[in-house]
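Researcher: Next entry in the queue.
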Amino acid sequence: MKMLSLAAAFTLVAAPACAGPISVSKAWVRPTPKGLSTSAAYFTVTNSGPADVLQSAATPAARASMHMSMKHGDMMMMHPQGDTPVPANGTVTFAPGGLHVMLEGVKQPLAAGQHVPLTLSFAKAGKITVDAEVRATAP
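Model: Structure for this entry, 139 residues:
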């Protein structure tokens, strides 16, 4: 069995994860605030085929659930997000201030530079696991 060089291994991790026409890129997770066990994950889903639905997210690092943040007047509100449609030949972005995966009960503090596996489950494409880097700002 051949060993991958560090550069080759990093290239595999950094590349978008794909299943059929669905690809997931730019995955990242916020560091956990000192003394808290919550964080959030963000990413971009690109679909080059027929419509699909993102049904759930999971990680061994914490309980994961999809949420939507919205501004109501001067107040930010967060609501659970059920199935998230991914339009045919479209893109869905999970980003601060909008769709995100809430990570609750984080088992170990998350610090910049670490990596967290995030598995996204789609109705048609199945499961896609991405390597999300822990960082303070978007890539």
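Model: Residues 19-134 form a domain with the Immunoglobulin-like fold (CATH 2.60.40.1890).
Researcher: Noted, moving on.
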